[in-house]
């Protein structure tokens, strides 16, 4: 008989107390099991049991301050000496590229530590210079950047504002004074007199040719006409005076082709019947008069040009008067400012440019009809004379320390604002806005690396500024839209800064790989630790950190018991008895919530009970998914067996992590064997359906290699197997189930039951050594809660790697159950120890011949392998006998066919020899043939029977 493989238990029943009742197969197994434990099992159990004292490390309240008010002073660099050393190295080197990437998990308080350190260093550093942007009178599109000592920028801005107010007032007074008006009238009168004299002289010259100078009424244009064409009310030609209108500007010359008939008053009454001789004389006189008039008209054109020059000279004289008045009015205002900024040549040059511009445009300033010289909205001076203070610091205030929480391209490098009026977009020097690099120039700038990478062009702009060591404002709109819109291009500002990027280590490695120039810009990496060794000195330092947070948040003081409870919880977060977590966010949350419970209880001192309540509240808030799982366990939807025995079935310990929720839970792991199929292949169902991660697959392959190395030297692996986590529908990763998978598989191979009262976790290497795993406290708590739901029997417990014992920081209720013998925790070094605890059998004891004893687990595995092989051989023998009989039968049938053919040929020969024989003879000959066939057939069946 071929032995059938054992099928894992799939049907369970529960009584009224939710106790798991073993199936029929399980009852048979328990009945056949020995009543007395194996001595090897007893010895292993004693050696591997973990005492209650090893399950948690407590802090002694007597070694801590009475309350946080008496705590020692806080050391800013507590626990982060490596990071601070890297920071000091970067700050001491002034070369390009020595900026810092502070790597560490979120919540460690990196920004707080660095800010406090930089604040101390910056307090003794020199105060950086001020920077202002002013109008460039030579190239208005490129504003000038002026550098001044600390606090001088505001002073310059104030002085220029006052200068504008005084200048406008004084100029208005000067240009409205009687003295100015009299000078202007004198210039105008002098010019008018010169024009009158010129017209009089030209008129006198015209009289010689019997021509008079007059102005046409419809266009006020000067022309020469015959005296008879003058208005009738005018005086005689000798007494007439030429009147020059005040608004006369110029005169036009007559067209040379124009023919003008000039007739004098004396010849108006000429007769039409004059003879031809007299007519010829008259024509010559008229022609002569026309030539003279044309000559005088040319003289008039020359006079017009001269008069225009005269007017230009008058205008120049007026402008010179304006400049002279402006210079005399403004010089006393500018002189004190020149002297005040005499040590800054660029500032003095700018002030002189302002002086020259005011003198040049004094008329526009006084008239106030030009937008460039009108005070802008929300400003005290026109944008043309505005001093835009980009950055200004108080003297002796040290270097700036700036943290930019929104590091966009505009917020980092600054930008130029624009204003839209009636559809027109305008900007000026007063709309230049500073960025974080401007504010931190000469000091230190802190940035979150992930925030910088979130915003377009922010990283490129920061990198360009740090490499060039200059802050150059650029239009982000032009880069995004690729348009050529006109905008200001301010002059770049020199940059002297140290930038510290804050981020996680994974982000640092990604930038190092994907950004070729990252290492050239951020040459220093400062690693922040997650925890510190748990010594009394570090405990006191953490109490000082608590006191600092309490003072800052104005919380109640914490007594020594509360401090001890907090330190124990920090060790739990560090998952190490001898380590303390440095996560500031968690500590701040605990302090605030503990303070709340003290306030609700009307107490002014926070105690251990308040801290415990706060921890329980936080655990309850994040335990929604865990409660759903326990509800399924109570309702029987989750099949977990914490009592009895089962073959090929193990309670594995897992950790479920989702967002900020993390809890442990047991999971049923089953193994199924298919004998005589395959060569030791193990099917990982989780991996094949893409629910298992790469680390889980690695653990499975390690376990497979271990089993092959273990048994292949003794016997061929003539089986295949499959492993699966039952009722698992989420992603599984990690190699912490390797030991439990090995236990389930060996149990199924040996057909040996596993104690379901024990759960197991642990990683394993190819040598069978058990290695440490993560989340050990949550895993133990998860199985303890499951056992408590199904009643603690005193036999339940967990098997963990011995390397994890130092990481145990269990709950007090679990420790109490261990003390009372209701729950047990075992630590193992090898897979053999784990199998002994789970099965109660010796694992790999050998006899004198170097073979595994039959009563050991490995011996049972080899026995089953050989049994499967024997069954396979017997099956093969039966198959060989059947094939031999079939071949023999085929040979006989072939011989029979040959014999039939021979007899048929013989009959044909006899028919040819006995042609004259009758039909009766043929019948008599046929009977022996039939008898022969019957005899041959009988012989074949007999042989076949034999």
From TrEMBL:
It is an enzyme of class 3 (hydrolase). Keywords: Coiled coil, Hydrolase, Protease, Serine protease. Its EC number is 3.4.21.53. The keyword DNA repair does not apply. The active site is at 736, 779. One of its GO terms (molecular function) is ATP-dependent peptidase activity. Residues 644-841 form the Lon proteolytic domain. Residues 884-895 have a biased composition (Basic residues). Residues 237-259, 896-930 have a biased composition (Basic and acidic residues). Residues 228-280, 873-946 are annotated as: Disordered. SUPFAM superfamilies: P-loop containing nucleoside triphosphate hydrolases, Ribosomal protein S5 domain 2-like. Residues 293-327 form a coiled coil. InterPro entries: AAA_32, Lon-like_helical, Lon_proteolytic, Lon_Prtase, LonB_AAA-LID, P-loop_NTPase, Ribosomal_Su5_D2-typ_SF, Ribsml_uS5_D2-typ_fold_subgr. It catalyses: Hydrolysis of proteins in presence of ATP. Belongs to the peptidase S16 family. This is endopeptidase La. It comes from Psychrobacter nivimaris.
